[in-house]
Amino acid sequence: MTLKIKNTLSKEKEIFEPLEKGKVKFYQCGPTLYWNQHIGNLRSVVIADLINKSLNYLGYEVNFVRNYTDVGHLSGDNEGDADTGEDRMEKAVKRENQDPNKIAQKYQGAYEIDIKKLNTTFPNSAPKATEYIEEQIEMIKTLLAKDFAYVTPLAVYFDTSKAKDYNRLSGQSIENNLCGAGTGEITDENKKHSNDFVLWFFKAGAHSKALQTWTTTAFASPLVEYGEGFPGWHLECSAMGKALLGNTLDLKMGGIEHISIHHTNEIAQSENANDAEYVKYWLHNEHLLVDGKKMSKSEGTSFTLSDIEEKGYSPLDLRYFFLQAHYRSKQNFTWDALEASKNARLKLNKKVSSFSDNGKIDINFKEQFIEKIKDDFSIPEALAIVWEILKSDILDEDKKSTILDFDKILGLKINEFEKEEIEISNELQEILNKRKEARENKNWEESDKLRDEIKELGFNILDKENEQILKNK
Fold first, then answer.
1. Beta-carbon neighbour count of residue 392 at 10 Å?
2. What is the DSSP string of 37-90?
3. pLDDT band at 418 (very low <50, low <70, confident <90, very high)
4. Three-class SS of residue 440?
5. Quick one: pLDDT at residue 456?
6. Cβ(86)–Cβ(75) below 8 Å
7. Same structural domain, 234 and 198
């Protein structure tokens, strides 16, 4: 069975054929570094990780890029107008009275701690928007030279009337697309069309006191003497993607909220600047709900990973929870659902860790697992096969080897369960000490007797060289 991916652009499941055989250029829209990421944001990270791991498992060499936005992301995107509102980084500066660079460093660090705890593989490249200003300016210059952009006293705009099939990703009529509609405080009377979107904001108007700006004469015109300002949010990924992966990407992923505005605009500017298809296969993940509703800071439901841990849950319990819904499906978070995920994960780990090593991977189950992965990354169905294996009549050691092989994608660290923290009572420690002494004296009968006592306390023990490894039973 060949890998099939549901392409947002065609609305169909398509056979995946990368630009270069055996290699995949994969880009995910990353976080804006102004706040701690909530678990909805982290779900998208885990989803991308599952796709990345799946591609690697299937034998592809993946060049995975996920960016950091540290300038230019305005708050108006929440209302469907990404060119309005206040820069999110500047909001954080006012909130915390710190320099924008320190804000970005702080929240990048917190984010990377979170995604490491969730056992996600870090991307091959993690560029920041502020590190690619020159590349963004060059793309704007190209669009201006090709007459796809124009300058006003407030900004450089992309002229959407010049873009062919502008709304083909969303399927909306152009009248319904509100991107850059001028509904916020930076309405520009010189904007030619309501749909035109910003490539570069000048340090003027509502942004006359912008904290993060770059000086350039690239956009000088009869209207603007100097081009000091900062890039629009949409431009960043286009420039960084081109710099790191080339004109055309195999896969691009983001949330469904990016379809009608952010990704629509990326297509328009990239394809008209580069004269090449921007992305072959578009993937969009659905939202995470909390108690059936959209997450809300005001209602206290915009949970972070720290909130999860403070309740006594492991980040891997949350990862297991995420495995149970397809990326294109909404998922509803509740504390009861997380508790069930925790219990299921611990049950799985305890069972697998009780099996002997040195088994073989069961080919029949592996074929079933791969079939699910190749069907648009159907992770929940792949996870179900793990439980089928545990119920099957194949050898226990083969069950273990097969499930550990699948965990290369699932990422539950099943083989490290024995390392999870175990509270060792004084009684248990005394038995362990006695057993160690018995083994050193080659008193195997006494060693086996003490092993049974350890089992009665609820633990198994594995002997590796001179080490006693205690495991939950």
1. 15
2. PBHHHHHHHHHHHHHHHHHHHTT-EEEEEE-BB-S--BGGGGGT-TTSS-BHHH
3. low
4. helix
5. 83
6. yes
7. yes
Cβ neighbours of residue 422 under 8 Å, at least 6 residues apart?
Answer: 459, 470, 471, 472
One-letter identity of residue 210: A
> What are residue 81's phi and psi, to 5 degrees?
-140, 90
pLDDT above 80 for 135: yes
| Rounded Cα gap, residues 192 and 87, in angstroms | 23
Q: Which residues pair with 9 in a beta bridge?
A: none
And the tokens for 35?
């706040």
**Block residue for tokens 């092989």:** 405
Distance set, CA 13 to CA 2, 4, 54, 57, 187 (Å): 11, 6, 17, 20, 40
Q: How far is the C-alpha of 357 from the C-alpha of 345, rounded, in Å?
A: 20
Torsion 77-131-27-325 (CA) sign: negative
Q: Would you state the torsion angle of the CA atoms of residues 224, 228, 234, 240, taken in this order, to the nearest 10 degrees?
A: 130
Distance (Å, whole) CA 27 – CA 124? 10
Six-digit token string for 365: 């189950």
> Can you give the CATH number for the domain in which 235 is found?
3.40.50.620
User: In terms of domains, do 154 and 303 share one?
Assistant: no
Q: Please check whether residues 336 and 386 belong to one and the same domain.
A: yes
Q: Can you tell me whether residue 269 is helix, strand or coil?
A: helix
pLDDT at 425: 76
Q: What is the pLDDT of residues 186-240, one digit of tens each?
A: 479 999 998 999 999 999 999 999 999 999 999 999 999 999 999 999 999 999 9
Same domain membership, residue 129 and residue 115: yes
Each residue of 81-132: pLDDT tens digit?
899 999 999 999 999 999 999 999 999 999 999 999 999 999 999 999 999 9
**pLDDT for residue 184:** 37
* Cα dist from 316 to 80, 275, 291, 402, whole Å: 34, 44, 21, 20
Q: Are 252 and 158 a contacting pair, CB within 8 Å?
A: no
Residues 221 and 27: their CA atoms lie apart, in Å, by 35
Return the closest-CA partner of residue 355 out of 392, 384, 327: 392
As a whole number, the mean pLDDT across the chain is 92
Tell the residue number behind the tokens 């210059």, with chain if given: 141
